[in-house]
Amino acid sequence: MWCRTGGCVVTRQIQLDTQDGVRIVRLDRPVANALTPDLRADLLQALREAAEDSACRAVVICGIGPGFSSGVDLTEYDQPAATPSVSALCAEIEAFPKPVVVALHGAALGAALALVLAAHARVAQAGAQIALPEIGLGMMPGAGVTQRLPRLAGAGVALDLMLSGQTVRTEDPRLADVFDRLVGIAPEAEAVALARRLADEGQWRRSCDCERGLEDPLAYRDAIAAAEQKLQKPSGAAGDILRAVEAAQLLPFTQGLNFEQVLFDERLQSPEARAQRYVYAAERRAGGMPELRGAEVRPLRRIALSGTGLGDVAMAFLEAGREVRTEDADLARQVRQACMRAVRAGRMETDEMQRRLARLVPERADDWADLVLDGRAEVVPQGVPARPAESGITALLDSGAGLGGARLGLRLYRPAQTLKLAEIAVGEGAAAGDVASLARLCAETGRTALRAALPAAGPGLGHVMMGVLCLAALDLVREGLTPLRVDQAAQRLGLRHGPFLLMDIEGLAQVAQRLGKVATMIGARPPDRDGPLAERLARGATGRVAGRGFYDHPPEGPRPSRDMAGTGLDPGEVPGGVAPRDALHAALVNGAARLLAAGAVQRASDLDVLMVRGYGYERLHGGPLFQADQRGLLAVLKDMKALRAVSEPLWAPQPMIEAMVRNGEGFFGRVALAVS
């Protein structure tokens, strides 16, 4: 429904104004003008009314707020198709009987850029940004992007943007043929003037008729060939993008659109795209904690660190503009060396290094810090960590032993500069404001934060999930498999590194201590008393630092240890005939169900985010729980029952899983009871 406010007509999501015959259509939907079906319908209605209004000579489309539009909400792609589609809206804009000009400020992402390209002219504010991030989600751009962008800018530019997913500023020289005007101020006024001039002239060019990017056929084909060579037999979304851009040169425009739509629909429903959309949405949900509702959030700008070996933690906070103090006299040296390496590698300017080092003070500071992070070992030496300032926070910083027993704890997944994941352990009596302040700190430093409820989470969510994986791996070796075969199975499941290599990297003594806690938590036998891990420790093979663990670690990289080598059992000989990959998966799923049933974690998707962000689980697999739903929980349950004789605590099915199978449910709703 349209209503009038002064001279402006508004709906819930659109504002309409008219200036000297130019209809201005302003997108006004919090947050970020996402192109929801309702907004698309309002925009389509506004366009059709403008077409019928004899007093309207041209149209300008722009956005209200920080940017033009963030595009389509990804959750829409997992639901029945809603009308009008973005493709239909773009076709309406392109065929509009009056000139349509887009005024771009802020950002236009994904499907929003499709609207921009469909317009007859484009005015952009310098510093505005565009991006086609679909490839990072296993998808390809649609709504005519693969056909219009090459016509405007050529195959090379189009492929650069689509295959990289990078964000590009509008003043980038590559976009010179995309935007008709660049302005230093808000672009609406210039867009209105341009629209009025086009109406006066009575002619304008549609993108489908533009041939600037097609003028040099040889250069066009060379750009496609170069992209193919760089990608080395491109497949998936990258392969589809190349085929669609090639079609823009070979097919008439309408047929090219049809070809793009077929590829887009197929790619949209591919398992890889569904998994990556799921992970993206799960990451956005993960930060939602009950303490953020109504609690006082205090800024944490001054941070005191207690403990050793925290150079990466200090660097992460300094990078985020925080001040850091520490009792560890060696930490300043570590940070200085890391900064100098970054300067030599060209990743940091010298001035920035000096600014960061100026915020690091290697001395104790009682009553100074907003946040004191106590990262000392479990056997705490004499003394106590620095006292925070009044109303400041003290939290246990996980140094590898876990967060069990903490009132308030924080685990920054290491190395902290590259793994953008944190786990906030919330024990009984933790103040809501303290939790909320830690969560805000994580968000401000670019981290996804997960909430772990203590004592249900034991030593921590990540330690439990990786703990059951490592305990399962050790049991498979007891049954006759080699560490190499188990690690290869873990990689086929989706992990970047297998559990035995990860144990070597961390150090077997520390791993044994923590696995003992996980084993006690689930009622399994501690791994440091007998079995493969105890045997390695007894031989002095303590991990990568020592040069030997489950693998030997020469300078050229890890290789199977001679005394752990051999072919091992064939996968078919594993008890119950369960493949190692499926055995590891079943242990992870069972461990996750234990945490969920105990209330240790807020939502099932948080555990998939943990595995993807913290342990390198491939995004195209979605995480172990997403995989379980896709495969069918009945199949996973059968594997658990076949393996429970190997270790009852690890593989005896959790009642939650049996109940879900009985009810035809999965971790994320009702699923088909498929068996693979």
Automatic annotation (TrEMBL):
GO terms for biological process: fatty acid beta-oxidation. Keywords: Isomerase, Lipid degradation, Lipid metabolism, Lyase, Multifunctional enzyme, Peroxisome. The keyword Lipid metabolism applies. InterPro entries: 3HC_DH_C, 6-PGluconate_DH-like_C_sf, 6PGD_dom2, ClpP/crotonase-like_dom_sf, Enoyl-CoA_hydra/iso. It is found in: Peroxisome. Residues 550-562 have a biased composition (Basic and acidic residues). Residues 545-576 are annotated as: Disordered. Residues 469-552 form the 3-hydroxyacyl-CoA dehydrogenase C-terminal domain. Its main location: other. CDD domains: crotonase-like. This is Short chain enoyl-CoA hydratase /3-hydroxyacyl-CoA dehydrogenase.
